[in-house]
Amino acid sequence: MGIVVDHIREDHEYIMKSLSILTNIFMKSEESVVINKIDLSECIRFNAIFTGMCHNEKEETILFKALAIKGDGVVVKEIASLSAEHRQCGIYIRNLQDLFPEDPHELISPRFMTGIVGYINHMESHIEKESETLFPMVDRYLTISEQETIRGQFNDYEEYVMEACAGTGIKGNIDYLFRKYS
Hints:
The chain has 6 helices and no strands. The chain has helices spanning 3-26, 37-70, 73-99, 110-141, 144-164, 170-181.
C-alpha cells in the first residue's frame, strides 16, 4: 500500500484508540465506578476535532476529489457512500456533544450511552469499509507522485486544523488515555 494509505491507516489507529477508550470507560466499568467525565470529554473532543474536522475532511476535500477525477463511475459511487458515512459520523459527534452533561455531578443519560454505542459501531464499520474499498482505490488510481502531493496536503491541512482548534496535543492525550484504560 502507498503513502496515502499509510497516512490514513495511522489516522485510523488513533480513531480506534479513542473508540477503545470509550468502550473501556463505559462497557468495562463496574456499576460502582464513577465515570471520569474529564477523560470522556477529552475523548469526545478528540473525535470532534481529529476524526470529524481533520481526518474526515482531509479525505473529503483532498483525497475524494483526486479520486473522483481519476476514477470511474464505481469510484464516484463508492466516494458518495463514504461521504454519507462521514456525514453520519458528524451527526453522531454533534449529538454526543449536545447530550454531554455540563454539570460534572449529573448522571450520564441513557440516550448519551446509546449514542456512544452507535458511534463506536458506526466508526468501526466505516474504518473496515475504508480498508476494504478506499485503500485499493487509492493505490489503483493515484500515482506515487500524486500520493506524495496528497500526503503533503494532508499534513498541511492537519497542522492547520490542529492549530486552529487548539488541538495540537490531542493525539498525545489519546495515547495517555489509551494506556490508562487498556
